[in-house]
Amino acid sequence: MLGIKEIEDIIPHRHPFLLIDRIDEVEAGKKAVGVKNFTYDEWFFKGHFPGQPVVPGVLVIEALAQVGAVAILSLDENKGKTPFFGGISKARFKQKIIPGDSVRLECEIIKTKGPIGTGMGVAYVNNKPAVTAEITFAIG
Q1: Residues recognised as catalytic
Q2: Which of 6, 67, 120, 133 is the Cys-Cys partner for 107 at CB 3.0 to 4.6 Å?
Q3: Domains of the chain
Q4: What's residue 9's pLDDT?
Q5: How many Å apart are CA 11 and CA 8, to the nearest integer?
Q6: Strands 128-139 vs 102-113: parallel, antiparallel or unpaired
Q7: pTM
């Protein structure tokens, strides 16, 4: 299991934009599984939406991408590099994520060619898929 400090040793993201609390599993270059516990104090809940806070879907996609970045940047040849979005496809939002939800974030790297790759991400709430997406990345 990796905590915040170990995650920060792998990916360049920092608070308030680090959207992973811990990594429970990592297979370098292949897959990572992480967790984000959303609390009512998250910075974005003040405006999204007052009286009915919901995690913005794009931030869930970002959290999935960060988990995928842990997997891809765990490879020796990628250490210290920066992952950039190359695209998002097949994104589906199946249920709301709200304050108090603990989200399991899984990203499996399904294709790589040179510095470009694609990960399949799934965010689960109560063991049910809440968000799914294919995320294309470029390692810079």
Answers
A1: 48
A2: 67
A3: 4-139 (3.10.129.10)
A4: 97
A5: 5
A6: unpaired
A7: 0.97
